[in-house]
TrEMBL record:
<protein>
    <submittedName>
        <fullName>Ribonuclease H</fullName>
    </submittedName>
</protein>
<dbReference type="InterPro" id="IPR053151">
    <property type="entry name" value="RNase_H-like"/>
</dbReference>
<dbReference type="Pfam" id="PF13456">
    <property type="entry name" value="RVT_3"/>
</dbReference>
<feature type="domain" description="RNase H type-1">
    <location>
        <begin position="29"/>
        <end position="160"/>
    </location>
</feature>
<dbReference type="InterPro" id="IPR012337">
    <property type="entry name" value="RNaseH-like_sf"/>
</dbReference>
<dbReference type="GO" id="GO:0003676">
    <property type="term" value="F:nucleic acid binding"/>
</dbReference>
<dbReference type="GO" id="GO:0004523">
    <property type="term" value="F:RNA-DNA hybrid ribonuclease activity"/>
</dbReference>
<dbReference type="InterPro" id="IPR036397">
    <property type="entry name" value="RNaseH_sf"/>
</dbReference>
<dbReference type="InterPro" id="IPR002156">
    <property type="entry name" value="RNaseH_domain"/>
</dbReference>
Length: 163
């Protein structure tokens, strides 16, 4: 009786018919990722880069990368890192993210506690805001530089290579 369900109810034998096998989901329905971001500009404004490290909820690094941004400000670099991290998290299938950054400005603005006044930053903020809407839950946390060493190392690796 392969695939049949047999149930014994009050000494009566019932055959319920074939059991359907449910297919395994091809994608996870829930994935929480931790996005560590940093941006740096030498001589602000100056040569700039973003650094991103993405981890799963066990601490395993899923992605570590950065990008040279040209001559920019540190705030431009910080926001660019967040945009890259959010984009990659979506590609990886995240449903929930915890964004961890050492930029007080970025954290406070994305948490809507500080206004976005600078006209060059407003479009970057809006891009981040729109990307964040794609996730079921977003938490944004500030950390000190010491708590963001891996993302900072990505920034420095890129900037040092351009010397």
């Amino acid at each position: 009786m392969n695939g049949m369900a047999i149930v014994n109810c009050n000494s009566q034998l019932l055959i319920l018919g074939r059991l359907r096998k449910h297919p395994k989901p091809s994608k996870l329905l829930y994935m929480k990722l931790f996005l560590h971001t940093d941006g740096g500009s030498r001589n602000n404004p100056g040569p700039s880069a973003s650094g991103i490290v993405i981890k799963d909820d066990t601490g395993k690094i899923l992605a570590a990368f950065g990008e040279y941004l040209g001559i920019q400000t540190n705030n431009f670099a910080e926001y660019s890192a967040v945009i890259s991290a959010l984009t990659k998290a979506k590609e990886l299938g995240a449903t929930e993210i915890v964004l961890i950054a050492d930029s007080k400005l970025v954290v406070e603005q994305l948490n809507r506690r500080w206004k976005v006044k600078h006209p060059n930053i407003q479009p970057l903020f809006l891009k981040c805001w729109n990307l964040m809407q794609q996730f079921k839950k977003v938490t944004i946390k500030h950390t000190l530089r010491a708590g963001n060493k891996e993302a900072d190392a990505e920034v420095n690796k890129i900037l040092d290579a351009r010397r």
